[in-house]
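Handout, page 2. Input:
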Amino acid sequence: MKELNNKGLKLIQNGIKDPVYSISYLLGNIAPGYFRKRYVKKTKLSGVNDKFFVLSFDCDTEKDIEVVKDVHQRLNALNILPSYAVPGELLKKGKNTYRELKDNGAEFLNHGYLSHTSYLKDSQSYVSTLFYDELSSKKVREDIVNGHNNFIDILGEPPVGFRTPHFGTYQKTKQLKFLYSVLNDLNYVFSTSTSPSKAMWNGSIIKTPSGILEIPVSGCYDYPARILDSWGFRFSPNRKLNENDYIDQFRKMMKFYQSENTRGVFNIYADPSQVYDWDVFFECMGMTSSLNNISFIDLINNR
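Output:
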């Protein structure tokens, strides 16, 4: 269990170091209704006038390569076409699998080059191995650029979207400013690298000073700053919520998005290796048919 704690501890440490995140987390738990209303207001101001659902996967381990096609097919049966963020080293290892998904219409995001998670088969656990906030700016840029170039080599075209590895640990204003400057230099259109606290204050799509559009990951209905993800509800050793809470929060979020006056982007992510055997996840995905299932780039182009 000790191996599992590193990501959770990093998130806690970053929360202590980043008062904006800590305050957002606290206020979100105290007044979730206020932040849901604020989210809708800010979302409308950003030009989003419909209800969208975006599903993406972080494919951070070799286990994901083994199961991703099965997950993809199950979702296709639900008329959902996911997007994929894959570290360059793993994109190279699973190139045949990922090329096939791309050829079938799936969107891919640069997720850096270096592998940043290990899957321990015996204990069915995950170990986080690389964090951008522990690297120099030079090394962060290098990892993004190497991932970018590898993406072109494997998939045959440049990426236009990016997700930071373990993005919950790379959220400070200075860090994001640097990230967006690098992405701007590489002609990216969007990033989906921020936690739900950004959406709480700014809505579903944020235009950054560099011109990059940021699409924060969605939070929970009752806990707006808490990511609604597979790791936090199923694998985190520090979790206080469980699989039943996941489906409860998902149902509440769907009811929120189905309400007449709500506009926004229900931006959910998971890891294939964490959901391929989890029927609850697919049950939740089946609830989203009333929303417009869309890729990130199509969302930007059609909002």
